[in-house]
Fold this sequence. Notes:
By secondary structure, the protein is mainly β. It is built from two helices and 43 strands. Strands 5, 6, 7, 8 and 9 form a five-stranded antiparallel β-sheet that branches. Helix 1 runs antiparallel to helix 2 (586-594).
Amino acid sequence: MTARPKFLISALLTASLGGSAIADGVWEVVISSLDSTVPGVPGAVWVPNSFNNPTISETGAISFRGQIGGADITLANSRLILRGTPGNWQIVARDGSPVPGNLIPGYVFNQTSGLNGLASSNNMSASGGVIATGNVNGPGVSASTDTAAFFVFPDGSAGLLVREGDPYPGGGGSVMSSSMSFGSGVRTSNAGICLLATTLTGGDVSGSTNNLALVLLQPSGPTAVFRKGAPAPGFSDGTTMTPDSFGLNVNGEFLIFPGALVGGSVTTANDRALFTNLGATPGTLRMVCREGDPVPGLPGVIYRPTASFVTPSQPINAGGIFFLGELEGEGVVPNVNDRAVFFQAASGSQQVLLRRGQPVPGVSADQAVFFTMNQSSWSSTPNGMLAYQGLLQAPDGSSVSNPSYLGFRAPDGFILTICREGDPIPGAAGSTFTSLNGSSSIAVCEAGIVVFQNLVLTPAGEVAQLFAWDEVNGLRMIAKAGDTQFTGTPANQLTLIGGTGQNGDGGGTGLSPSGVLVIRAGDSTNQIYSIARIALGAGTLPCPGDLNDDGEVNGADLSILLGAWGECPPKGSCAADLNDDGEVNGADLSILLGAWGACP
């Protein structure tokens, strides 16, 4: 791990959100089921417990789906998606109303039975664009044409992304079928780009040999990415590939997905791979890594032949890709050092960020070491922040007590432990963290602020609590079950979208880049529910290249870097090794020159 460049306190203490302002560290309820009016629907009231997880954009716009009741409200028009801020809400889509932009004339969101059709997926871009999707009904609708998805831009204009029965853009006369899925895992870019897996029917479809495809959707029209049975990227021996329908990620124009290899020289020991267009020739794909292949930078080590040999995160802009890989080979001991977290740059160069068996900051290495990440509890940001829920083990691979913990890795390679299972809660005597494994809903933003939840063990029993952490303010509790600021009564539900909320631009959708958090809260006993936000205040911003820690990247830092030019024995010993690859070279010079000037 390199010496740490200077981190500065962000000047953001108050977030300006569409004309309204919220004070740092103070919760504000933006929507409550007790509200006497529903924005845009006179006479309507909110149905209790109908808000889904809210999302927030980089400008502070909040979006959620809810259900309303009242006079003239039926199951044909009771669901709607709102976007905006208090006093400035817009209806993005509503059951029974024309689809966005009236892009399919005469059609509304509804099932053919006349019941609500608007789906509950909460997919939002960084700038506030929203996907509205679900069942549609109108003239000539049939079971093969009754789903559609639209992208509604921040200004209210809309584009049709796809409709069931649309032609497959790769040709052959087939059409895209009803297996289209727009759950919360769909990542949407500011341009309305998202990646969809769809089954194909009709035309040139031949049984199950070519009936699945990946399609890049955008308002200007869909583009074929890959079709089952086509030659696998990088192979010329007859090997084909079947793309997975899960683990699909986009970041702007870049995409990543796993797939299964078939034919050629493929065996069960090398039939899984990860693919991307990041760093590839435009219009093509390249293989990120493959089961059974050598691991760059680890001589004699291969990716372990197993169906789950890698677990990808989303790409980081044009920079590269995080993924979790399983290992075997020279020097690899099962359950001791056989798993690692990697970052692969667009150039294809790869580095180990965390490896099973390495020391964990704040934990004695003779007692416990890094074991793995929880594959569903890690989040990253466009500027390279990584927050993760990790697990510990004894150095010999055996289990330890209190194994779960939360970790943070900054773009400069600095790693620390935020908290560990069994640790005392700051400011709450007698209370401790319970297991963090799989239940932390961890999220991180570009300002270096991390949020998570935990069922804390108190003298009175387990209580749900929300926490925030950053390098300036440290770890603090920001809400707990029993608080009354959300519903006016003791709340017993506090829900974060966490790491499951990711946009298609490399960031999160529950925590804005500046650290404004939005949550769903409720009191199920009294049937009162709300959506609330809070500005979490000063975080940290990286200043790569400020090697003399004077708040500016200039000639003095350049001299330090040039003076350290060459290899860093051992790896991680040079402050000027800005990309932590064990050598000070042109790559580090590029990082320094790119940060030239005053630190943010």
